[in-house]
Amino acid sequence: MGRDRVAELTLRAVEKRFGAVQAVKAVDLDVADGEFVVLVGPSGCGKSTLLRMIAGLEDISDGEILLDGRNLNAVAPRDRDMAMVFQDYALYPHMTVAENLGFALKMRDMAASEIEAKVNEVAAMLELDALLHRKPRALSGGQRQRVALGRALIRDPKVFLFDEPLSNLDAKLRVGMRMEIRKLQAALRTTSIYVTHDQIEAMTMADRIVVLKLGEVQQIGTPIEIYQRPVNSFVGTFIGSPPMSLSKADVRYEGEAAFLGFGRGQEIRLPSDRAAVLRSAAIAQIEVGLRAEHIALADGGGEDEATFLSDVILVEEHGADSIAVVRLGDHEVMARVKPGGVHTGDKGRRFEMDVAALHLFHPEKGGRLG
Ligand code: ATP
């Protein structure tokens, strides 16, 4: 198995309407050969519908889907050379693991000896060797998902489609399986589209992420691009854990400078380039996005225009670091600190904001400024 074929997937202005519900709105996407693209968004954003349209399980209302330049709109699912892995595994309960794995090849009239060789090859890749004679009901959830993955692999398709394949597994298995899927895909270099509502899966697995909301693409980019430069406050808060804190602030201009007022007299001075962006947008109020790593403990440091004093409302221990909920004016924000650095109930600790790293969003429209 492996790539000797090119598989580039293109979506042009793809739409889906269910009666009055517009589930997918004008999606454009170019997936490169061998790329792993993750579609992510909250429930109802249209990600499953989009995947099902790529698979051919759902008609498209408008637009086109192309594989290597060939229009797939009228091509039946079985003729698309794609294999889908489902959340509920979709195994045949009356067949053994070996029969489940080999079923698609049997349908292609492949010789029994050849099927056996392929089944053994895939079983070895997925460490299913010892389970080949069991029925699905005698397998754990993780093992069933491995068989479902094996059924897709054995077909050696041009494209893998994954529909929330890890949702039914417990947290520890999920982490293990997401690494395995990624390792297999990196070895096979098969073009892959993966749907999840879990932003951590999107961040950890994707070459590129497509963030969807209410059927519309919000942003397409690498995990780092999306994490560092979210195009709006929705993407900013959806991607990243702990989530970005959003706080409304009043802007006060003074000469070249601009200060963000968070309430209770708490002001933070913006660097001049950020101040210039706000001035040109003539903005008096702003939504400020802060990631926990951009607020640090600054005990012992001097008072300056990027520091603030706060009691510690809550500390969550994460082992390697701690997340402290602290007060910034009228708002609660999260700070990432060293373990043991702060404690719930601490009074008057000093924190420092990395003002160059904060995100500025339009207060009503949510779009990124600067
Ligand atoms: P989830 O994570 O909950 O599965 P999703 O992002 O995959 O959500 P879709 O299942 O694609 O979202 O649904 C997108 C929108 O289309 C939703 O508003 C949904 O109610 C609607 N929808 C999906 N399938 C149908 C259908 N067969 N008939 C009518 N509306 C539908």
Would you kindly provide a written description of the structure presented here, covering whatever features stand out?
Residues 9-239 form the ABC transporter domain. Belongs to the ABC transporter superfamily. The protein is α+β, with helices and mostly antiparallel strands and 370 residues long. It folds into two domains: 9-238, Rossmann fold (3-Layer(aba) Sandwich), CATH 3.40.50.300; 245-361, OB fold (Dihydrolipoamide Acetyltransferase, E2P) (Beta Barrel), CATH 2.40.50. The chain has helices at residues 47-55, 97-107, 112-125, 141-154, 171-188, 199-205, 223-228, 233-238, 272-280, and strands at residues 9-18, 21-31, 36-40, 62-67, 70-71, 82-86, 159-163, 191-196, 208-213, 216-221, 245-254, 257-261, 267-269, 285-290, 295-297, 307-310, 312-317, 322-328, 331-337, 349-353, 359-361. Helix 2 runs parallel beside helix 4. The longest helix is centred in the middle third of the chain and has 18 residues, at 171-188. The structure holds adenosine-5'-triphosphate. The site of adenosine-5'-triphosphate has 12 residues, from strand 2 and helix 1.
Notable features of this structure?
Rossmann fold, 33% strand, binds adenosine-5'-triphosphate, 9 helices, six-stranded mixed beta sheet, 370 residues, single chain, alpha+beta, 25% helix, OB fold (Dihydrolipoamide Acetyltransferase, E2P), five-stranded antiparallel beta sheet
